[in-house]
Amino acid sequence: MADHDRVHDRGNGHGNGNGHGQGCSSDHDGSTDRACERASERDALRKGVPAPNVVRAPTGAPPASPAAPAAPAPYNAPAPPAHPGAGTDTGSIAAAGPGPNASGTSGWRAAVSRTRRGGHALRAAISAGLVAAIALTVLFVPLLFPLDEQAVHLADKLRAPSLEHPFGTDDVGRDLLLRCVYGLRVSLLVGVVAALAATVIGTAVGALAGALGGWADRLVMRLVDVFSSVPHLLLGIFIVAMFRPGVWPVVISVGLTHWLSTARIVRAELLSLRTRPYVEAAISGGASRLRVAVRHLLPAVLPQAGLAAVLMVPHAIWHESALSFLGLGLPSHEASLGAMVQSARSSLLAGDWWPTLFPGLLIIIPTLAIAGLAGAWRERINPRRRSELTL
């Protein structure tokens, strides 16, 4: 009876919050310890508290020593759940797949990428079609419809656009459609030839600066900076003023004022190529500078130089039109878009819009078409720009 009361008191001691150590550590009888542990478990279950982790010793055996601390988990072992049932069900996550936001975002980005690629492809196709149509027009229309520069029809002056004269007539009765085609041919001739000349000059100067380096590079680039400080149009006026009016003085003027950007592009490209491993390997292998330039540097520079030439054509067209507008380009009796716009100013003030509109459109449309074609070429040869379109 005394043992039973003692066990009951120790069990109550644990249930009252004294702990298992205070209620059961003073007696070394095995049966008494087991009874105390059972009482503690009953109290814990009654209060909803997990039973203490007690190591039970066999009857007659000395009390069990405290449990040894668990070995530390490996560094890459998963963390235990914070509470029961907090484990990760990988099967359910794999079955669930990506969330709705991920699929929506990827679909939106794919749609934007397709739209951008489609828009750039459409723009390139339209630009190529316009350039082809303009080239065919300026090649074959003059062969089919020769223009008499001296012909004057005062009875038909300033007629509005009609089936007989789709672009109308000017202030002396000349057909504007035919004169616009001839003026566009002159503008394209000046633009293409001047752009090629400027590209050759700029490539030579940039290659010289990039290949030599050192003081030669610094000297050449300072000269480029000096020429860049003068406006192109002002320098072109100075050059044209030394010659008689005509096509070739305009070509020389535009070619000598538009090579600066090409020189900078070629020089920068060569400076980046000189540090490439294959170029350094060729130099270390005993290859001469000429061989390295011809076999390794020049093929890498040509696409950039060609792109610069195409981008230069619109600039050359605008400068030729500006010089002709100022009266420094072609002679007044020859067809030139800039000169036609200049001579139609008085007609525009009188309300006759067509002598100014159609030559102005034929200056703008070819430049936009060539610029769009050059933009498509730039995206093709520039891997970074092409990767941006696929994002």
CATH architecture of the largest domain: Orthogonal Bundle
Radius of gyration: 44 Å
Helix/strand order:
HHHHHHHHHHHHHHHH
First-residue to last-residue Cα separation: 85 Å
The biggest beta sheet is recorded as: none
Membrane topology: Multi-pass membrane protein
Family: Belongs to the binding-protein-dependent transport system permease family.
GO biological process, one term: transmembrane transport
Keywords: Cell membrane, Membrane, Transmembrane, Transmembrane helix, Transport
At a glance:
By secondary structure, the chain is mainly alpha-helical. It has 16 helices and no strands.
Structure overview:
- The chain has 391 residues and is mostly helical.
- The chain folds into two domains: 2-47; 112-389, MetI-like (MetI-like fold), CATH 1.10.3720.10.
- It is built from 16 helices and no strands.
How does the SSE layout of this entry go?
Elements: H1 2-15, H2 20-24, H3 30-47, H4 90-96, H5 100-144, H6 176-212, H7 214-228, H8 232-240, H9 247-257, H10 260-273, H11 277-284, H12 289-325, H13 337-343, H14 345-349, H15 354-381, H16 383-389
Helix pairs in contact: 1-3, 5-6, 5-15, 6-7, 6-9, 6-10, 6-12, 6-15, 8-9, 9-12, 10-12, 11-12, 12-13, 12-15, 13-15, 15-16
